[in-house]
Amino acid sequence: MLLKTKPADVFVDRHNGPDDAGVAEMLRVVGVESLDQLIDETVPAAIRLKKPLNLPKALTERAFLAKFKGIAEKNQLFKNYIGLGYHPTQLPAVIQRNILENPGWYTAYTPYQAEIAQGRLEALINYQTMVMELTGLDIANASLLDEGTAAAETLHMFHSLSKKKNATRYFVSEQVLPQTIDVLRTRATPLGIELVIGDHRTADLTDESLFGAILQYPAADGAVYDYTDFITKAHEHSLFVTVAADLLSLTLLTPPGEMGADAVVGNSQRFGVPMGYGGPHAGFLATRDQFKRVIPGRIIGQSIDAAGNKAFRMALQTREQHIRREKATSNICTAQVLLSVLAGMYAVYHGPQRIRQFASNIHAQAQTLAGALGELGLNQRNEFYFDTLDIKLESEELQSAVKKEAEAARINFRYFSEHGTPRVGISLNQNTEIEDVQDIVAVFAKVLGKNAPQVALPAEVDVNWDDVLVRKSEYLTHPIFNSHHSEHEMLRYMKQLENKDLSLAHSMIALGSCTMKLNATAEMIPVTWPEIGNLHPFAPREQAQGYAEIFADLEKWLCEVTGFDAVSLQPNSGAQGEYAGLLAIKGYHDSRGDQHRNVALIPASAHGTNPASAVMAGMQVVVVKSTEDGNIDVADLEAKAAQYADKLSCLMVTYPSTHGVYEETIIDICQTIHNHGGRVYMDGANMNAQVGLTSPAIIGADVCHLNLHKTFCIPHGGGGPGVGPIGVVADLAPFLPGHVLIDADGRTASAVSSAPWGSASILPISYAYINMMGGEGLTEATRIAILNANYIKAKLEEHYPVLYTGANGRCAHEMILDCRQFKKAGIEVEDIAKRLMDYGFHAPTVSFPVAGTLMVEPTESESKEELDRFIEAMIAIRMEVAEVEEGRADAKDNLLKHAPHTAATVLVHDWTRPYSREQAVYPTEYARAYKFWPSVSRIDSAYGDRNLICSCTSIDEYVDAEEQLVQADKGPSY
């Protein structure tokens, strides 16, 4: 007997769902002889790659993890006291294991289908409540991307609200975090807003050109100021005031809301989320009730379901950029759900007393350190402080000596100058022990040539702040923050919430444009390694050589995939990537003296963030029509490109199209734009249908963003984190985002995100994916994604019309199922979406890009067996619709209108509905064997908007108290 040898553990076989037999059967159903034939019939020959991807050879999981361990160990773990919004912290192990490392949490999708997302939604209500109560304000959103972008969002919000018609200036305290000022500058410039940076104590608030101001609390140097008088004077002159605050300090300090702040922003990172070299972390934004209609991001609200039970949902202006498009006030499309869940659970687990104790310990250690440094003759500048000392030094030579000695002791401080005077900033944190304080003292003592005084943590310290700065109001009083302090209780609480949510751990989530594919365990493992999680983003770059290698490789590989010359990893969401890409185009035009080029052509079918991003970048949106078959109307595009030739900045285009088609005319479309002096931005939402087969560069694009949380396997995390790096051609490379604190490879543009490399700690996931797939594996994944989509199309097109196809009747990696004809029988697409829950599936994308349709994307990771279960469910639902159409089922009292069915719905003594309980909850044998039970019935969205409750307060306490009901004007639905 002869034994053949070949690799037995190939990762691509783990990632791609169908086996050889499944592929063969699907090809037969699709009607082709081979996968090559299907690809030839689907992807236009003119845009096909001429050679294979030049990427490293694929590694096994074991080989990759061994290799990556060596890379990670090149990062040096110093004690970090740099501060500036990032602090070492401790994520409780019970939360790390059961949320951060749990696919039941990290593979779920954005909670648009609220009935099967009640666990995440409750966790986000906890987060909102935590933020509202700590900041002292009325309403908070369910997270933003980071502190800098949250601050920028309030700048936009208050600029749009200002009644001072000619006010285009915004006061920024010089003590706002430098990276936040950098992001503010980026966001202000395209809109013609001027930042006035100065000392808040001497600012002229009578200036009629000012519309608002932002302050830091505590300040960047650690000083704590009472801003009450400043805010009062600002309001007297019709200025809005934002305060960027440290959440942990607000357990001891008077909250900005009580000082009169209109908004409070910040970063919840130090509530248990690792620094991760800059992200991802959940930014927050809290504001007053009067601004609830304009606050950016997502708000989670409480409503009722069909049975009158309490239920959570996304409320108010959710997804408003999809509705309002170029009139949107924000382009936010993702949040940091997984990170806000972690921060909220940190508050649930520790409760108000323990969190306050963390803060008390930190402040006591800061006082102890200040006293010891004073004994050494050093000048600590801050009269009032929480955790950060500002040490004035006599010379730059002394500052350099401190830095050298500190780094020899593996300690990082912040080194800066103010008005020519060298300073050292020292920010203590939750992980600081009294022994660490002694080590810090020893560094200074050695440099000064003195004996280090011995320190000890006192049993109590006297807080010497002015009384007005001392917090007196309570916070986190709800039982949820006071009931789960033992690990056993916490474990059970998190599990109860997890059980309410459907994720990829249960079944496929066939969301078109969202690419819900396998997030392999081996890809996730390094994320929680200390070498990845415990680096400060502003640590010296020589301490992060492991990260440097990851960034360099990933940029090189993404250039290979896209065909571009340079990549920026900084944008921390797809929408941020769009914005950064448009700014690169704007920077290019401006550098050539073409500041007048400000027209962005955008197809009518484009994702809603496209026009919103264009407006934020200071552009004028001109919509290009679509033809009846869903393609870009080339004649209309050519006419408008010619009409606006002198002002044309760019075209924003998605490829394959948002309709799931490889448009044959794409090269000509891009060339038309170039002929008129414009550049082409390609939305990378559908890169899962390009990798290895074609590329943005081949079709003629100049820049594109890549959703690493889609094509490159970073989990969606229940609605975030996302990562949206951009690739550009060579002449746009100089205009990629830089950073004020870190020399990002010589890039001088201002930042789009707070951290130099955005969400750095989850980049290893995509790094792992590319390493373990290799060029051949990535290409095969794209081929299988196209096969899976065309298999579903072939099986369902006799039941549901498929709206758009390519020249040979093929779809790309997704398709649109038309459900509009069912409206004649009173059945809406929403009814089908809710009924799918009874079958154990999350709905495909509902009513985008065409109202009344479902956009289906199976991805390459789903097996033929799982595809068949989904197909079976969709056909069965079509038969249920037919019963209504034919009058065999009542138009209102039927399976679809009452879906989803909960256990409580069917476990009633008197069942009066015209269909059986079995039909309701066990429509297939698979559903009977592996039933996923929605925890609530269909939710009344309109009720939730009319009666907005977005914190941890029982609806029973409000339902009869009309004075507590917040009447909201009619807004967009989603």
UniProtKB/TrEMBL annotation:
Its cofactor is pyridoxal 5'-phosphate. It comes from the Bacteria. One of its GO terms (molecular function) is pyridoxal phosphate binding. It catalyses: N(6)-[(R)-lipoyl]-L-lysyl-[glycine-cleavage complex H protein] + glycine + H(+) = N(6)-[(R)-S(8)-aminomethyldihydrolipoyl]-L-lysyl-[glycine-cleavage complex H protein] + CO2. Residues 781-901 form the Glycine dehydrogenase C-terminal domain. This is Glycine dehydrogenase (decarboxylating). It comes from Hymenobacter psychrophilus. Keywords: Oxidoreductase, Pyridoxal phosphate. The glycine cleavage system catalyzes the degradation of glycine. The P protein binds the alpha-amino group of glycine through its pyridoxal phosphate cofactor; CO(2) is released and the remaining methylamine moiety is then transferred to the lipoamide cofactor of the H protein. One of its GO terms (biological process) is glycine decarboxylation via glycine cleavage system. The keyword Oxidoreductase applies. The glycine cleavage system is composed of four proteins: P, T, L and H.
